[in-house]
Amino acid sequence: MTSSLRCLCSKKHIFDTLRTPYHAAVSLQFVRWRMHRGVPRPLHKLEKKIGPKINVEDEYEKTWKREMHKKYRSQMNALRSEIVRDTLHWLGMNKVEHLMASQKTQMAEWEESHKLNDLWNAEIAKQREERMMKERRKVEAANYQKMVVGLRKREIRREMAESFLGEYSSMITPDNLDEKIREALDAQVQHSRPLDNEGKPEPIMMDMLYNQVPEDETWKADSEEREKDLSEDPDDNDASYLDSDLGEEMEGMDVDAIEAEDFNHGDEAEETNDGQDKKS
Amino acid sequence: MKKEGTLAIRFALHGCVNRPFYHIVVIQKHKARNGRIISQIGTYDPMINQFGERLFAMSFQKYRKWILREAQPTKSLVKMLGIAGFYPIHPQSILHAHRKRMLQARQASEAKQQTEEFKETAL
């Protein structure tokens, strides 16, 4: 039996309490599952005999049972009404008056409770309105801030777009193609020009004249000096240098005829001396 | 208008394991045994004291007032009040006593019969 119990009762603490089939030393702890049919009954239930209920009715019961109950019922009804009458008499009023008084008190209590309820509702309504106003202000402030931030972002985007457009305003598109061609043809670009340390071309007179570059003061000083130099250029139509620099050999000679010969002779010499120049 | 519902006057079991103790309370009928009461009007101790008594205490003034407000007492309480003398004795208590008396008489007669048979066999 113990082996069958061990395999069936996997709960260890039940098996530990059962020592032999004759001594049902069952644990007194409450268990949540039903015992196996082989587990013996507890001691306090061994004497209890469960059997069918036997209704033993005597002649006395058969004759007097119904009448006793009828009598009892009538007595109890009478007693109940007597108790009500006595208590009303003891309270000093009739049943109707008692009912009306109770109704009056109940109505008064109801009205009082309603007034209290209305007061409480008014207080709570005030608190609710204050709370709602606060929340509305918060929401409005948040919306205003959002709007401001959005507008600021839009402005920044517009500025960035304009800056990009400014940089790319010189781009050639089908719309401004004709204009750009005209500009390119009309523009006079000087490629032989000095550069800064950064690699950008320095402005010169021609840029200033055609591209309207702002004039620096230093350049002004330089431009004035250059104007002076240009005015003193010996290549100008001023033949005074001839008189000063020429020697006695050129006295009495026709300078214009000599210059014309030199001019024409120079061209012929360049044409005929191609092979000799190369050899030298 | 205040609506209390159907009221009952009954026992509410308090105490601890192996020591019951009852409160006689006025309570709404649908509530649990130890639920929220309207008022307590008495007590009942079912354990026999040193004098062989089961003590029962109640305020009959309050009981009458609640009867006026249409509260219904339970059968066990009414039986106990019948035994106490406030109400007439309940038929079930009379029949219970009758059955117990008959059983005792039967057992006594059986025991007497067994002794007589034993005496006859011994002789």
UniProtKB/TrEMBL annotation, chain A:
Q: Which InterPro entries match?
A: Ribosomal_mS26
Top-rank taxon of the source lineage equals: Eukaryota
Location(s) in or outside the cell: Mitochondrion
Which stretches does UniProt call biased (Acidic residues)?
A: 245-261
Keyword Ribosomal protein among record annotations: yes
Which residue ranges are recorded for the region named Disordered? 218-280
- Positions the record marks as coiled coil are 93-142
Keywords from the UniProt entry = Coiled coil, Mitochondrion, Ribonucleoprotein, Ribosomal protein, Transit peptide
Question: Which portions of the chain have biased composition (kind: Basic and acidic residues)?
Answer: 218-231
Name the Pfam families for this protein: MRP-S26 (PF14943)
Gene Ontology CC: mitochondrial small ribosomal subunit
> What is stated as this protein's family in its record?
Belongs to the mitochondrion-specific ribosomal protein mS26 family.
Listed name of the protein: Small ribosomal subunit protein mS26
Q: Which organism is it from?
A: Lingula anatina
Lineage of this protein's species?
Eukaryota, Metazoa, Spiralia, Lophotrochozoa, Brachiopoda
Q: Which gene encodes it?
A: LOC106164460
TrEMBL record, chain B:
Query: What Gene3D superfamilies does the record tag this protein with?
Result: 3.30.1320.10
Name one cellular component (GO) term: mitochondrial inner membrane
Question: Which UniProt keywords are present, listed alphabetically?
Answer: Mitochondrion, Ribonucleoprotein, Ribosomal protein
Q: Which GO terms describe its biological process?
A: mitochondrial translation
Where is it chiefly localized? mitochondrion
- Subcellular location as annotated: Mitochondrion
Keyword set includes Transferase:
no
Q: Which residues form a coiled coil?
A: none
Q: Which GO terms describe its molecular function?
A: structural constituent of ribosome
Stored Pfam families: Ribosomal_S16 (PF00886)
Entry's InterPro entries?
Answer: Ribosomal_bS16, Ribosomal_bS16_dom_sf
**Family, as annotated:** Belongs to the bacterial ribosomal protein bS16 family.
Its protein name is Small ribosomal subunit protein bS16m
The encoding gene: LOC106171345
